């Protein structure tokens, strides 16, 4: 890269991949968790009449929905339109995503026998995923596609609670009461998450993100002993596939160093810890992703601009910075504000 006009010619040389590896970039790359979704009228139109988990298994819909925010906002990466529970659904677990609620499990995992009865994920059931990823990579050209999976702990919370929950009390109770079955459950979830990620990378995804959204409810000691080894197993399941690995959870301020140690090139940070402080906690060996509060996008333009500037500034303390929100785009976000944030981040960070 010698001139300011030089744009990436391949996903492997994109600002997203470079920032994730701590290499110099033309501009701070930006994408948004949940960038494909209800904030976009074109998404709502396309999804009308199709259940979420059906849409995720239709390569035409997956391709189109994944591309929508790339076209509209000019973000620096696409993220596959899918869901963390999809590997379970494909394996045969009865789960429904209820609009406005989240994943609901028909028969929650409550006993050791339930753990042992969980079906495994056969890779040959993922042809739809391979097809969608290949099509996307062809359409995206130099823009990288981020593949993802849910981490074992966060998936276990849905399986055990039976749906979304605040305290995750049943999950923790099971973790303490049945340590061996807990290990087996998280082992199995790690195997299927790794299978899901490998199909995405082997068909052309340029980076992966492991979502451990609810890991922040754990103490550092419990996380380190009872959860981290299984998340590490997911990353290890990628073998020597040379794509950057992002690891994200909400409320993980006290866990940031451990989240990195699980095998990440990039640690995702929510809005609670400023990025300069997060950089101190994570250390100089990893890049950071985040961390604008998604609620800021509902405020006035001055507030949005001030907060975006702050995040870009504080992000300079990190080895590399991928601009994102601290969690997913809220459904009532004005998509025009998202486009504005992309432009502003690029303008503030242009070399
Ligand atoms: C916890 C979690 C889930 N799913 C996911 C997580 C981890 C990220 C996070 O912490 O938010 C991951 C996810 N889910 C979705 C994506 C697509 C890619 C993206 O644009 O980020 C990703 C990366 C699509 C989706 N997943 C879901 C939607 C909304 C469904 C719809 O449009 O009808 C989308 C676009 C459904 C879903 N699925 C889940 C929830 C909590 C919900 C929201 C329920 C609701 O509020 O209606 C489980």
UniProtKB/TrEMBL annotation:
Q: Where does substrate bind?
A: 34-38, 83, 158, 213, 327
- A GO biological process this protein is involved in? protoporphyrinogen IX biosynthetic process
Q: Name one GO molecular function term.
A: uroporphyrinogen decarboxylase activity
Record SUPFAM superfamilies: UROD/MetE-like
Q: What is its EC number?
A: 4.1.1.37
On the tree of life, the source organism's domain of life is Bacteria
Keyword annotations of the record: Cytoplasm, Decarboxylase, Lyase, Porphyrin biosynthesis
- Which reactions appear under catalytic activity for this entry? uroporphyrinogen III + 4 H(+) = coproporphyrinogen III + 4 CO2
Domain Uroporphyrinogen decarboxylase (URO-D), by residue range, is: 29-38, 146-162
- Listed GO CC annotations: cytosol
Q: Carries keyword Lyase?
A: yes
> Per the record's keyword annotation, is Nucleotide-binding included, yes or no?
no
Q: Which PANTHER family match?
A: METHYLTETRAHYDROFOLATE:HOMOCYSTEINE METHYLTRANSFERASE RELATED, UROPORPHYRINOGEN DECARBOXYLASE
Per its database record, what is this protein's job?
A: Catalyzes the decarboxylation of four acetate groups of uroporphyrinogen-III to yield coproporphyrinogen-III.
According to the record's subunit comment, the protein's assembly and interactions are: Homodimer.
| Protein name per the record | Uroporphyrinogen decarboxylase
> Which lineage?
Bacteria, Bacillati, Actinomycetota, Actinomycetes, Geodermatophilales
């Amino acid at each position: 890269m010698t001139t300011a006009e030089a744009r990436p010619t391949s996903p492997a040389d994109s600002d997203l991949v470079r920032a994730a590896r701590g290499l110099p970039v033309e501009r701070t790359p930006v994408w948004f968790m949940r960038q494909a979704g209800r904030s976009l009228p074109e998404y709502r139109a396309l999804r009308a009449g199709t259940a979420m988990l059906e849409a995720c298994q239709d390569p035409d819909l997956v391709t189109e929905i994944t591309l929508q925010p790339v076209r509209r906002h000019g973000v620096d990466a696409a993220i596959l339109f899918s869901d963390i529970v999809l590997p379970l659904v494909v394996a045969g677990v009865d789960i429904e995503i209820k609009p406005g609620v989240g994943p609901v499990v028909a028969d929650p995992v409550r006993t050791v026998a339930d753990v042992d009865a969980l079906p495994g994920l056969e890779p040959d059931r993922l042809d739809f995923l391979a097809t969608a990823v290949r099509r996307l990579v062809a359409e995206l050209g130099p823009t990288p596609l981020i593949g993802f999976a849910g981490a074992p702990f966060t998936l276990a919370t849905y399986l055990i609670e039976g749906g979304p929950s605040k305290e995750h009390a049943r999950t923790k109770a099971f973790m303490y009461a049945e340590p061996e079955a807990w290990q087996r459950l998280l082992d199995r979830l790690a195997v299927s998450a790794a299978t899901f990620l490998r199909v995405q990378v082997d068909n052309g995804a340029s980076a992966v993100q492991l979502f451990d959204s609810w890991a922040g409810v754990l103490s550092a000691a419990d996380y380190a002993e009872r959860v981290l080894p299984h998340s590490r197993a997911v990353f290890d399941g990628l073998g020597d596939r040379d794509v950057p690995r992002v690891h994200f959870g909400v409320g993980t301020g006290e866990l940031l160093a451990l989240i990195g140690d699980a095998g990440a090139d990039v640690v995702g940070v929510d809005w609670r810890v400023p990025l300069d402080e997060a950089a101190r906690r994570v250390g100089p060996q990893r890049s950071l992703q985040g961390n604008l509060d998604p609620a800021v996008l509902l405020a006035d333009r001055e507030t949005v601009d001030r907060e975006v500037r702050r995040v870009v500034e504080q992000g300079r303390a990190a080895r590399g910075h991928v601009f994102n929100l601290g969690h997913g785009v809220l459904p009532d976000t004005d998509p025009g504000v998202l486009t504005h944030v992309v432009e502003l981040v690029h303008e503030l960070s242009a070399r």
